[in-house]
Design brief:
The protein is α+β, with helices and mostly antiparallel strands and 210 residues long.
Length: 210
């Protein structure tokens, strides 16, 4: 019986254990609350940062690249075609473009005041459409019938060396009345081919030979 009786030393041990357990349970219960608060705060910050920063977009495509991408998407959606179908599609596209050109030309004709088009202006160039060349030279031969041989002399300054370069050429001109003779200064004009060598015609005799 003496052993079963509780000693005064064992009695205060029970409340001490309970107090220790209570002290240990307090921070354990508060810790998850602090963790949840931190998690919520970090989530809010991440969402706000995502709202503030714009979403990154890829490099802007050019119009050519956009058209190519559109054609690629359309071709991938379209069923494979035979050679005859492709040929028929090309013909339709040609007809459409031809009709478009015709409409554009009709509008241009209506907008233009004169059906013959703008009036031609005289060009400062020596020769051109409807403007034959004119040369002046010295007759060196009149032996052939209705034909004279004219020497055309020219002088020009060299591009690089700035030297006067003289040159001459021989032309055969048609003289219907055999009016010009050797030594005369004449003016000739370009004409249609009259023979194998004649491409010029006599206009007038400027100065007679002495």
């Amino acid at each position: 019986m003496a052993d079963e009786e509780t000693t005064p030393d064992e009695t205060p041990e029970t409340p001490a254990v309970e107090e220790t357990a209570a002290v240990e349970e307090t921070p354990v219960a508060e810790a998850p609350a602090a963790d949840d608060g931190e998690a919520e705060t970090s989530d809010d910050v991440a969402v706000a940062a995502a709202d503030e920063e714009p979403a990154e977009t890829g490099p802007a495509l050019t119009r050519k690249a956009q058209r190519a991408q559109t054609r690629h998407v359309e071709s991938s959606k379209r069923a494979p075609r035979t050679a005859e179908e492709r040929h028929a599609e090309r013909l339709e596209e040609r007809k459409r473009k031809a009709a478009q050109r015709s409409r554009r030309r009709e509008k241009a004709k209506v907008a233009r005041p004169d059906e013959r088009g703008p009036q031609k202006t005289e060009s400062p160039v020596e020769h051109g459409p409807g403007r034959p060349k004119v040369r002046q030279g010295l007759v060196i031969s009149d032996k052939a019938d209705k034909t004279i041989t004219v020497r055309i002399e020219s002088a020009r300054r060299h591009r690089r060396y700035e030297k006067i370069v003289r040159s001459s050429s021989t032309l055969h001109a048609h003289d219907e009345a055999n009016d010009a003779h050797a030594g005369d200064l004449v003016r000739i004009i370009e004409s249609r081919p009259l023979s194998r060598l004649k491409r010029w015609r006599l206009v007038e005799v400027l100065e007679r030979a002495k």
